[in-house]
Specification:
Elements: E1 6-16, E2 20-33, E3 40-46, E4 49-55, E5 72-76, H1 88-93, E6 104-108, E7 140-148, E8 156-168, E9 171-174, E10 193-195
Parallel strand pairs: 5-6
Antiparallel strand pairs: 1-7, 2-5, 2-8, 3-4, 3-7, 9-10
């Protein structure tokens, strides 16, 4: 359960152990049940990387409370064709005031706004994207923080997950066997098995 009307929120940590040592892409899945999406503020951190996934979706100068829809079951991807999750009603219905039925689904770009959830607007710049993790080592602790910024309803963090892509360092898993051959007439073929991101070569 996400504490209602409490900026201290809820932190959920996952420890990653993977052969990947250099990230080239991150996607995040998030499932939250609740009755008022516009209350929620959510970000993800790892190392020096930081992305804002949700920042009071739908909050704008004409609506300080944002969208009153019921939950999320989404994937966040910087390259999502749906675009900015902050304006999902406008994208889906052509209007900020037309509600959706049930939880928001599909793939969306993260909100990216670093402004305070008590002052953020749809016109604020977006700077905190998933690309902030590119180039880093994914191994270690990732922390998702989520808070409910307004009172009156309860939301629950059901689950969240990571999809990581990148490069892994080469590692020889089977060395070539020693061989002897006559220099003038013989030949030798050596075989090696290795793991890691392609292309791999051996000399």
């Amino acid at each position: 359960m996400i504490p209602d009307d409490d900026p201290s929120g809820l932190a959920s940590a996952q420890t990653v152990s993977t052969p990947i040592t250099y990230l080239t892409g991150v996607k995040v899945t998030l499932k939250v049940s609740g009755t008022f999406n516009g209350d929620l503020y959510c970000y993800l951190t790892h190392g020096s990387g930081h992305t804002v996934l949700l920042n009071r979706v739908g909050r704008r100068s004409s609506s300080s409370l944002g969208y009153g829809d019921s939950g999320f079951d989404v994937k966040f991807d910087d390259a999502a064709t749906n675009g900015d999750v902050h304006a999902y009603r406008l994208t889906l219905n052509g209007s900020n005031t037309s509600p959706i039925s049930g939880a928001l689904t599909n793939v969306w770009a993260p909100d990216g706004r670093t402004n305070s959830p008590f002052a953020v607007l749809n016109t604020d710049p977006r700077t905190a994207f998933l690309s902030s993790f590119n180039g880093s080592d994914p191994n270690g602790e990732w922390v998702l923080f989520i808070a409910d910024a307004e009172g009156g309803d309860i939301s629950t963090l059901v689950n969240w997950g990571l999809e990581l892509t990148g490069y892994s360092a080469p590692s020889i898993t089977m060395n070539p066997a020693n061989q002897s051959a006559e220099c003038s007439s013989g030949g030798a073929t050596f075989n090696v098995t290795a793991s890691g991101s392609a292309p791999l070569s051996y000399q």
